[in-house]
Amino acid sequence: MRKVLITGGFGFLGGRIADHLGNQGFEVSLGSRTSKLVPSGFNNCKSVITNWDDTNQLRDVCSDQDVIIHTAGMSAEDCAKDPIASFEFNCIGTMKLLKACKSNERKKFIYLSTAHVYGSPLVGKLSEDSIPRNNHPYATSHLAGEFGVNYANAKGDTEGYNLRVSNGFGAPILEDVNCWKLFVNDLCKQAITKRELTIHSNEQQQRDFIPIRNITKTIEMIINQKNPLNHNTFNLGSGSSFTLFEMAKIIQSRTNHLFHFSPAIITNPNVKNFNGNFLEYNVDRLKSFHLLDNVNLEGELDSLLLYCQNHFGKSTI
Protein backbone atom coordinates (compact mmCIF):
# COMPACT_ATOMS: atom_id res chain seq x y z
CA MET A 1 0.00 0.00 0.00
CA ARG A 2 1.53 3.31 -1.10
CA LYS A 3 1.77 6.10 1.46
CA VAL A 4 0.70 9.65 0.64
CA LEU A 5 1.06 12.83 2.68
CA ILE A 6 -1.37 15.64 1.85
CA THR A 7 -0.53 19.02 3.34
CA GLY A 8 -3.67 21.02 4.00
CA GLY A 9 -5.40 17.66 4.21
CA PHE A 10 -8.35 19.09 6.13
CA GLY A 11 -8.98 21.84 3.57
CA PHE A 12 -11.41 21.96 0.66
CA LEU A 13 -9.17 20.48 -2.02
CA GLY A 14 -6.99 18.46 0.35
CA GLY A 15 -10.04 16.81 1.89
CA ARG A 16 -11.42 15.76 -1.47
CA ILE A 17 -8.04 14.38 -2.56
CA ALA A 18 -7.68 12.46 0.71
CA ASP A 19 -11.16 11.01 0.43
CA HIS A 20 -10.55 9.87 -3.15
CA LEU A 21 -7.11 8.35 -2.58
CA GLY A 22 -8.19 6.67 0.65
CA ASN A 23 -11.04 5.00 -1.20
CA GLN A 24 -8.56 3.83 -3.84
CA GLY A 25 -6.51 1.99 -1.23
CA PHE A 26 -3.74 4.50 -0.55
CA GLU A 27 -2.54 5.02 3.02
CA VAL A 28 -3.14 8.74 3.48
CA SER A 29 -1.72 11.12 6.08
CA LEU A 30 -3.62 14.39 6.43
CA GLY A 31 -1.17 17.13 7.32
CA SER A 32 -2.28 19.98 9.56
CA ARG A 33 -0.59 22.60 11.74
CA THR A 34 -2.67 21.46 14.72
CA SER A 35 -3.81 18.09 15.99
CA LYS A 36 -7.13 17.07 14.47
CA LEU A 37 -9.32 14.00 14.53
CA VAL A 38 -10.00 12.31 11.21
CA PRO A 39 -13.77 12.11 10.58
CA SER A 40 -15.20 8.59 10.51
CA GLY A 41 -16.11 8.85 6.82
CA PHE A 42 -12.47 8.83 5.69
CA ASN A 43 -10.97 5.47 4.72
CA ASN A 44 -7.28 4.61 5.24
CA CYS A 45 -6.53 8.09 6.63
CA LYS A 46 -4.74 9.40 9.68
CA SER A 47 -3.87 12.86 10.95
CA VAL A 48 -0.29 14.15 11.30
CA ILE A 49 1.04 17.51 12.46
CA THR A 50 3.13 19.47 9.96
CA ASN A 51 5.22 22.03 11.82
CA TRP A 52 6.54 24.43 9.18
CA ASP A 53 9.01 25.96 11.66
CA ASP A 54 10.63 22.62 12.52
CA THR A 55 12.69 21.15 9.68
CA ASN A 56 13.45 17.97 11.60
CA GLN A 57 9.77 17.36 12.33
CA LEU A 58 8.88 17.87 8.67
CA ARG A 59 11.62 15.43 7.69
CA ASP A 60 10.25 12.83 10.12
CA VAL A 61 6.73 13.25 8.71
CA CYS A 62 7.96 12.85 5.14
CA SER A 63 10.45 10.06 5.77
CA ASP A 64 8.16 7.07 5.18
CA GLN A 65 5.95 8.68 2.52
CA ASP A 66 6.04 7.69 -1.14
CA VAL A 67 4.16 10.75 -2.40
CA ILE A 68 3.72 14.29 -1.07
CA ILE A 69 0.78 16.34 -2.33
CA HIS A 70 1.19 19.97 -1.33
CA THR A 71 -2.18 21.74 -1.18
CA ALA A 72 -1.56 23.94 1.86
CA GLY A 73 -1.30 27.62 1.04
CA MET A 74 -2.66 31.07 1.72
CA SER A 75 -5.81 32.29 -0.01
CA ALA A 76 -5.73 35.11 -2.55
CA GLU A 77 -7.45 37.39 -0.06
CA ASP A 78 -4.92 36.66 2.70
CA CYS A 79 -2.01 37.04 0.26
CA ALA A 80 -3.23 40.52 -0.66
CA LYS A 81 -3.46 41.48 3.01
CA ASP A 82 0.03 40.21 3.83
CA PRO A 83 2.31 39.79 0.78
CA ILE A 84 5.33 39.00 2.94
CA ALA A 85 3.52 36.15 4.66
CA SER A 86 2.36 34.87 1.27
CA PHE A 87 5.97 34.35 0.18
CA GLU A 88 6.98 32.97 3.56
CA PHE A 89 4.41 30.22 3.24
CA ASN A 90 3.66 29.63 -0.46
CA CYS A 91 7.32 29.89 -1.47
CA ILE A 92 9.59 29.32 1.53
CA GLY A 93 7.19 26.81 3.09
CA THR A 94 7.21 24.84 -0.15
CA MET A 95 11.02 24.92 -0.21
CA LYS A 96 11.12 23.63 3.38
CA LEU A 97 8.83 20.76 2.46
CA LEU A 98 10.91 19.92 -0.60
CA LYS A 99 14.05 19.85 1.54
CA ALA A 100 12.30 17.58 4.05
CA CYS A 101 11.42 15.18 1.22
CA LYS A 102 15.03 14.73 0.12
CA SER A 103 16.12 11.13 0.70
CA ASN A 104 17.91 8.26 -0.95
CA GLU A 105 14.63 7.17 -2.51
CA ARG A 106 13.26 9.85 -4.86
CA LYS A 107 9.71 10.77 -3.85
CA LYS A 108 6.93 12.13 -6.00
CA PHE A 109 6.01 15.70 -5.10
CA ILE A 110 2.81 17.20 -6.51
CA TYR A 111 2.36 20.93 -6.00
CA LEU A 112 -1.10 22.46 -6.41
CA SER A 113 -0.42 25.84 -8.00
CA THR A 114 -2.91 28.10 -9.75
CA ALA A 115 -3.92 29.11 -13.27
CA HIS A 116 -3.85 32.68 -12.05
CA VAL A 117 -0.07 32.81 -12.43
CA TYR A 118 -0.89 33.79 -16.05
CA GLY A 119 -3.09 36.77 -15.20
CA SER A 120 -6.34 37.95 -13.64
CA PRO A 121 -8.79 37.68 -15.20
CA LEU A 122 -7.57 34.86 -17.41
CA VAL A 123 -7.89 35.81 -21.08
CA GLY A 124 -6.57 34.56 -24.42
CA LYS A 125 -4.95 31.28 -25.30
CA LEU A 126 -2.96 30.00 -22.33
CA SER A 127 -0.61 27.05 -22.48
CA GLU A 128 2.24 26.05 -20.21
CA ASP A 129 4.53 28.02 -22.54
CA SER A 130 2.62 31.26 -21.93
CA ILE A 131 4.45 33.88 -19.89
CA PRO A 132 3.03 34.41 -16.36
CA ARG A 133 2.07 38.08 -16.04
CA ASN A 134 0.09 38.34 -12.82
CA ASN A 135 1.80 40.50 -10.18
CA HIS A 136 -0.67 39.69 -7.39
CA PRO A 137 1.10 38.15 -4.35
CA TYR A 138 -1.13 35.08 -4.62
CA ALA A 139 0.14 34.42 -8.15
CA THR A 140 3.77 35.41 -7.69
CA SER A 141 4.20 33.43 -4.47
CA HIS A 142 2.75 30.32 -6.13
CA LEU A 143 5.00 30.83 -9.12
CA ALA A 144 7.97 31.07 -6.75
CA GLY A 145 6.83 27.79 -5.19
CA GLU A 146 6.84 26.26 -8.67
CA PHE A 147 10.43 27.39 -9.16
CA GLY A 148 11.30 25.54 -5.97
CA VAL A 149 9.76 22.35 -7.35
CA ASN A 150 11.64 22.84 -10.63
CA TYR A 151 14.94 23.30 -8.78
CA ALA A 152 14.46 20.18 -6.63
CA ASN A 153 13.48 18.30 -9.77
CA ALA A 154 16.57 19.43 -11.67
CA LYS A 155 18.81 18.36 -8.78
CA GLY A 156 17.17 14.93 -8.70
CA ASP A 157 15.93 15.41 -5.13
CA THR A 158 12.30 14.74 -6.05
CA GLU A 159 10.12 13.80 -9.00
CA GLY A 160 8.16 17.04 -8.84
CA TYR A 161 5.08 18.23 -10.70
CA ASN A 162 3.34 21.62 -10.76
CA LEU A 163 -0.39 21.56 -11.44
CA ARG A 164 -1.81 24.96 -12.42
CA VAL A 165 -5.42 24.43 -11.40
CA SER A 166 -8.19 26.49 -12.99
CA ASN A 167 -11.57 27.17 -11.31
CA GLY A 168 -12.34 24.02 -9.36
CA PHE A 169 -15.78 23.43 -7.87
CA GLY A 170 -17.60 20.75 -5.94
CA ALA A 171 -18.96 19.69 -2.58
CA PRO A 172 -16.61 19.69 0.41
CA ILE A 173 -15.94 16.56 2.43
CA LEU A 174 -15.69 18.45 5.71
CA GLU A 175 -18.58 20.68 6.78
CA ASP A 176 -16.42 23.38 8.39
CA VAL A 177 -14.48 24.08 5.17
CA ASN A 178 -15.17 27.56 3.79
CA CYS A 179 -15.52 27.00 0.05
CA TRP A 180 -18.59 29.15 -0.54
CA LYS A 181 -16.80 32.13 -2.07
CA LEU A 182 -16.01 30.03 -5.15
CA PHE A 183 -18.28 31.16 -7.98
CA VAL A 184 -20.00 27.85 -8.72
CA ASN A 185 -20.24 26.83 -5.06
CA ASP A 186 -21.71 30.24 -4.21
CA LEU A 187 -24.35 30.00 -6.94
CA CYS A 188 -25.35 26.46 -5.98
CA LYS A 189 -25.79 27.53 -2.36
CA GLN A 190 -27.81 30.57 -3.52
CA ALA A 191 -30.02 28.32 -5.64
CA ILE A 192 -31.05 26.39 -2.52
CA THR A 193 -31.11 29.12 0.13
CA LYS A 194 -32.41 32.08 -1.91
CA ARG A 195 -33.88 30.48 -5.04
CA GLU A 196 -31.91 32.95 -7.12
CA LEU A 197 -28.50 33.16 -8.76
CA THR A 198 -26.89 36.57 -8.30
CA ILE A 199 -23.79 37.22 -10.38
CA HIS A 200 -21.77 40.01 -8.79
CA SER A 201 -18.97 40.13 -11.40
CA ASN A 202 -18.89 40.72 -15.14
CA GLU A 203 -21.37 38.15 -16.45
CA GLN A 204 -19.51 37.89 -19.78
CA GLN A 205 -16.19 36.98 -18.18
CA GLN A 206 -15.05 33.53 -19.27
CA ARG A 207 -13.60 30.93 -16.93
CA ASP A 208 -12.46 27.35 -17.21
CA PHE A 209 -14.44 25.38 -14.62
CA ILE A 210 -13.22 21.94 -13.59
CA PRO A 211 -15.00 19.46 -11.29
CA ILE A 212 -13.00 18.52 -8.23
CA ARG A 213 -13.42 14.83 -9.11
CA ASN A 214 -11.35 15.43 -12.25
CA ILE A 215 -8.61 17.06 -10.18
CA THR A 216 -8.48 14.15 -7.73
CA LYS A 217 -8.51 11.57 -10.53
CA THR A 218 -5.71 13.38 -12.40
CA ILE A 219 -3.57 13.35 -9.26
CA GLU A 220 -4.18 9.63 -8.83
CA MET A 221 -3.16 9.03 -12.45
CA ILE A 222 0.08 10.98 -11.98
CA ILE A 223 0.87 8.97 -8.85
CA ASN A 224 0.32 5.74 -10.77
CA GLN A 225 2.76 6.67 -13.55
CA LYS A 226 5.68 4.24 -13.30
CA ASN A 227 8.17 6.45 -15.13
CA PRO A 228 8.80 10.20 -14.73
CA LEU A 229 6.89 12.34 -17.22
CA ASN A 230 8.70 14.41 -19.83
CA HIS A 231 7.16 17.61 -18.44
CA ASN A 232 6.66 18.70 -14.86
CA THR A 233 4.29 21.68 -15.25
CA PHE A 234 0.70 21.12 -16.37
CA ASN A 235 -2.40 23.23 -16.87
CA LEU A 236 -5.16 21.40 -15.02
CA GLY A 237 -8.56 22.50 -16.27
CA SER A 238 -11.49 21.21 -18.27
CA GLY A 239 -10.25 22.68 -21.55
CA SER A 240 -13.65 24.35 -22.08
CA SER A 241 -14.64 27.89 -21.13
CA PHE A 242 -18.00 29.33 -20.14
CA THR A 243 -19.09 32.84 -19.33
CA LEU A 244 -20.35 33.37 -15.81
CA PHE A 245 -23.84 33.80 -17.25
CA GLU A 246 -23.58 30.52 -19.19
CA MET A 247 -22.53 28.67 -16.04
CA ALA A 248 -25.43 30.25 -14.15
CA LYS A 249 -27.78 28.95 -16.86
CA ILE A 250 -26.37 25.42 -16.43
CA ILE A 251 -26.85 25.61 -12.65
CA GLN A 252 -30.38 26.89 -13.21
CA SER A 253 -31.09 23.91 -15.47
CA ARG A 254 -29.64 21.35 -13.02
CA THR A 255 -31.61 22.90 -10.15
CA ASN A 256 -34.78 22.52 -12.17
CA HIS A 257 -33.85 18.93 -13.03
CA LEU A 258 -33.28 17.98 -9.40
CA PHE A 259 -35.79 20.10 -7.50
CA HIS A 260 -38.31 21.23 -10.14
CA PHE A 261 -37.83 24.97 -9.82
CA SER A 262 -35.69 27.45 -11.75
CA PRO A 263 -33.91 30.11 -9.67
CA ALA A 264 -33.87 33.54 -11.30
CA ILE A 265 -30.54 34.77 -12.64
CA ILE A 266 -29.74 38.28 -11.40
CA THR A 267 -26.88 40.31 -12.86
CA ASN A 268 -25.22 43.41 -11.49
CA PRO A 269 -26.27 46.49 -13.51
CA ASN A 270 -23.33 48.46 -12.09
CA VAL A 271 -20.76 46.13 -13.68
CA LYS A 272 -19.79 47.08 -17.20
CA ASN A 273 -19.86 44.02 -19.42
CA PHE A 274 -17.50 43.68 -22.33
CA ASN A 275 -16.77 41.25 -25.10
CA GLY A 276 -13.43 40.08 -26.38
CA ASN A 277 -12.41 38.30 -23.16
CA PHE A 278 -12.03 34.95 -24.91
CA LEU A 279 -10.32 32.23 -22.85
CA GLU A 280 -8.79 28.98 -24.02
CA TYR A 281 -7.10 27.21 -21.14
CA ASN A 282 -5.05 24.68 -23.03
CA VAL A 283 -4.77 21.23 -21.41
CA ASP A 284 -3.26 19.38 -24.38
CA ARG A 285 -0.14 18.52 -22.41
CA LEU A 286 -2.18 16.60 -19.83
CA LYS A 287 -4.21 14.93 -22.57
CA SER A 288 -1.06 13.86 -24.42
CA PHE A 289 -0.15 11.73 -21.39
CA HIS A 290 -3.75 10.50 -21.01
CA LEU A 291 -3.91 12.14 -17.60
CA LEU A 292 -7.27 13.90 -17.89
CA ASP A 293 -10.54 11.97 -17.67
CA ASN A 294 -13.73 13.02 -19.42
CA VAL A 295 -15.13 16.09 -17.71
CA ASN A 296 -18.66 15.73 -16.33
CA LEU A 297 -19.79 19.19 -15.19
CA GLU A 298 -23.38 18.11 -14.64
CA GLY A 299 -22.45 15.20 -12.38
CA GLU A 300 -20.36 17.40 -10.09
CA LEU A 301 -23.00 20.15 -10.12
CA ASP A 302 -25.72 17.66 -9.14
CA SER A 303 -23.63 16.39 -6.23
CA LEU A 304 -22.95 19.96 -5.11
CA LEU A 305 -26.59 20.99 -5.34
CA LEU A 306 -27.66 17.91 -3.38
CA TYR A 307 -25.04 18.73 -0.75
CA CYS A 308 -26.41 22.27 -0.48
CA GLN A 309 -29.95 20.94 -0.17
CA ASN A 310 -28.94 18.52 2.59
CA HIS A 311 -26.98 21.11 4.56
CA PHE A 312 -28.68 24.43 3.84
CA GLY A 313 -32.04 23.61 2.31
CA LYS A 314 -35.56 23.73 3.66
CA SER A 315 -37.80 20.70 3.93
CA THR A 316 -40.32 22.33 1.56
CA ILE A 317 -38.18 21.56 -1.51
Automatic annotation (TrEMBL):
Protein name from the UniProt record: SDR family oxidoreductase
InterPro entries: Epimerase_deHydtase (IPR001509), Lipid_A_modif_metabolic_enz (IPR050177), NAD(P)-bd_dom_sf (IPR036291)
Record-annotated NAD-dependent epimerase/dehydratase domain positions: 4-237
Species, as recorded: Leptospira bouyouniensis
Family annotation (Gene3D superfamilies): NAD(P)-binding Rossmann-like Domain
CDD domains named in the record: SDR_e
